[in-house]
Amino acid sequence: MIEPKQKLRPLPAFIFMTRWLQLPLYLGLILAQCVYVFHFWVELKDLIGAVMGNEASLQHILEAVAVHAPTPEAAAAAAHAPAKLTETTIMLVVLGLIDVVMISNLLVMVIIGGYETFISRMNLDSHPDQPEWLSHVNASVLKTKLAMAIIGISSIHLLKTFINAAVYDPQTLIAQTVIHVVFLLSALAISYTDRITTLTHNESH
Description:
Elements: H1 10-17, H2 23-51, H3 55-65, H4 72-79, H5 87-118, H6 139-163, H7 170-204
C-alpha cells in the first residue's frame, strides 16, 4: 500500500518554494547564450568574407586577433604583423570560435544541470535527446563537469597565447601557464573529493 505524501508545513513549504527565485538567473543565462550565438555568426561571417576578399571583413578579423603588446619590444614585434589573411590568423579566429562553442557548452550544462539539480525535475527520461550526463547529474557531477569545461576553455586561451608568444613577455606566459595548471589541479582535487565521497556513501550502505 502506497503511503500518502506528507504535506509540508507552511514555513518549510515557503522556504522550499524560494528555489524558484533562481529561475530568472537561468533565463538570464539563456539570453547570454543568445549573445554568444550572435557573436559566433558575426565572427564566422567576417572570416568567410575575408576569405572571399571583402576588405571590411578582413580588417575586422585582423583587429579581432590583434594582441595589445604589454612592452615596447613586443609592440615592435606586433607592428610587423601581416596585413592579410594568413594561416595563423585563420587559426586564431577558429580558436576564438571554438572558445565561443566551449563557453556555450558550459552555459548549457549550467542551465540544464542547475535547473534539474536545484529547481525542478525536467522529466526527460523518455526524451530521445536527453543528454547522457543528465541521467545521473547531481551537485558533485555538475562541479566536475564544469571544472573540465573550464580547463578546456583555459587550454584554448593558452594555445592562443603561445601562438602569439612573440608579443608577450615571459612573465605573462609563465603566469598563464601557472593559472592553467592550477585549474588542472583544482579539477583533480574536485574529482578525488567526489570519489572519496561516493566510496564513503557506498560503504555506509
